[in-house]
Amino acid sequence: MKSSFVVENCSSGKESQVIEAMQRLEAAIPLETDIGDINGLYGHTVIIQTGDVTIRNDTLDCEFDIPFDDDTEADEADILIYNLSETTQKGIRKGEAISVTAGYGEDTGVIFSGIISQVSTKYSGIDQVTQIYALDSENRKEQELKSIAYKANTAASSILKDLIGRAKLPIAVFAPKRDYVYKDGKTISGGLMDNIKKMAQVCGVSAYICKGQVYVRSVLEGDAVDFTLSSATGLLDLSEFEEELTAEDFSDTVHGYNVKMLLQHRVQTGSILNIQSRNVSGAYRVREGSHTYDGTDFLTTVKAIESLPGASAAKESESSKSLPDLSGYSGVSIVDGLKSAGADSSYAYRKILAEQLGMSGYSGSASQNLEMLRKLGAKVG
């Protein structure tokens, strides 16, 4: 047995991490979703490449934690490789390009590409562990700005475009959702990437890097990956969240889910996931997340917010002005109630439905959902 697949157990000596992982998996699978499908748990493929060095997980143990998000600050990958030869260690150098490819069998894709920022080798027990830190772009290192003064009546979108230009990053999409005019001018100082993020929020958008280019677009817009996520395709867990984002005079409420799935190399910032579970159905945009591998668990976890496709469907429903009839439903879940009537259950549609029912300031709270159920004729006691 490979030494890095063995862990110390205080009560009974050494125990296989594979056994430990299966015990954790057994406890984790019957979650909010339908019974999880464990097909594909095996046949993990990991390929790490830098310079003339190529490392595969079928010959050497490795681990990684690779984050991604929708801002322009550099994301740092943490990669561990066990028991490399001295020659191979010398081939892994700071400043060199590095990539990580992952998936199942031949269904793989690049989940990280960047530059090594730090590398070190130390002993941990009987194992020699090489730890590699890598940034997805050297150009995205935080830069401190001296005070930059913008004249009176400068628009936030103009400031945002200027800041991105200072970062020397090519723009793929620049589509502000709204604008704000600084009548008395605006002074910018501090971190360049941090200021890009703040100004993007003022414009109602995300500013993030994907494949070396900047995307400035609505937090609800993304790119379809032609992938339906369900228990049959690796969905493990869902938990709902809601956040309020404020910038200048604007306030935005975003609604979505924390999602855990078997590692999916197609998922990245801006990916649109078609989620289908017992309680959730709709299109959601990936805002941030991570790909992780600890030698056993092979996971992708993301924070995904409701995407524009759901909002478009809601607008179509709004134009028809027909309200769902829930008189045949008895329960306390607005999502289940709407589904029982064959209606859209997305948050975007519920928000418009609330306006049709004369409910102001809908945020998806339990009390508001109960009120909506009653107004639509459901039997809620």
What does this structure look like?
The protein is of the alpha+beta class. Helix content is 21%, strand content 43%. A hairpin with a 2-residue loop joins β3 (44-50) and β4. Mean pLDDT is 82; it is low at 1-16, 29-41 and 309-320.
Shape, principal axes of CA atoms: flat
Q: How many strands, what sense, and barrel or not for the largest sheet? A: 13 strands, mixed
Q: Structural class, from secondary structure content?
A: alpha+beta
% residues in beta strands: 35-45%
Approximate helicity band? 10-25%
Q: Low-confidence spans: pLDDT under 50, at least 5 residues?
A: 1-16, 29-41, 309-320
Give the number of helices: 8
CA distance, first residue to last residue: 60 Å
Number of strands: 22
Could you report the average pLDDT, rounded to the nearest whole number?
82
Topology as H/E string?
EEHEEEEHEEEEEHEEEHEEEEEEEEHHHH
What is the gyration radius calculated from CA atoms?
A: 24 Å
Summarize the structure.
By secondary structure, this protein is α+β, with helices and mostly antiparallel strands.
Short key terms for the protein model shown above:
21% helix, 381 residues, alpha+beta, 13-stranded mixed sheet, 8 helices, 22 strands, three-stranded mixed sheet
